[in-house]
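Thread: Newbie trying to understand structure tokens

Hi all, I'm a second-year student working on a class project, and my supervisor (Dr. K.) asked me to get a predicted structure for one chain before our next meeting. I've only ever worked with sequences, so writing a 3D structure as a token string is new to me. If someone could post the tokens and maybe explain what I'm looking at, I'd be very grateful. Here's the chain:
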Amino acid sequence: MAQRAVMVIDMQNGVFSTPRFDRAGRVAQINRLTACADSTLFIQHRENTMSPGHASFDLLPELIQPAGAHFISKTACDSFWQTGLAALLERLEITEFVVCGCATDYCVDTTLKVGASAGYRITVAADAHTTADRRWASAEQLIGQHNEVWASLLIPGNEPRVMSTQAILAEWQ
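---
Reply by user tm_fold:
Sure, no problem. This is what the structure looks like when written as tokens:
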């Protein structure tokens, strides 16, 4: 069986200074995934005061950080752009992973599309990503819409999968 890897994007204090949909529920699902994963990768956005040493850069306190977790900081929506993420995945021999975190419509979406185009086999934990309400759509609508789009994203031979946390965990058994 392939390594059970989870990539958790931008679940940080500074990101959550803007209210996000179902914070407690999404954190609970992420914690379920990381508890069963062989490898956990935390991606942290770095910008202005949201930088190492500032509380805004820190992961949410209710997020469990497994021993041996890996940390990558980024400055763009794309977790691969000018980071060591691809090198870390190669070193760990990770070619497929589950993605979750924040924000659905920015960093999760961009990382998923870039990663899948680069050949990584990606599963989205449909109930473990979140975002904020936007001017023209609610967070809940955006999450549902992105899950639908990702489930039908056309990347021949490497279509992303969208599954509930429970279904992912059942598959990992």
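A couple of things are worth pointing out once you decode it. The longest helix spans residues 23-36. Residues 131 and 166 are 21 Å apart (CA to CA). Feel free to ask follow-ups in this thread.
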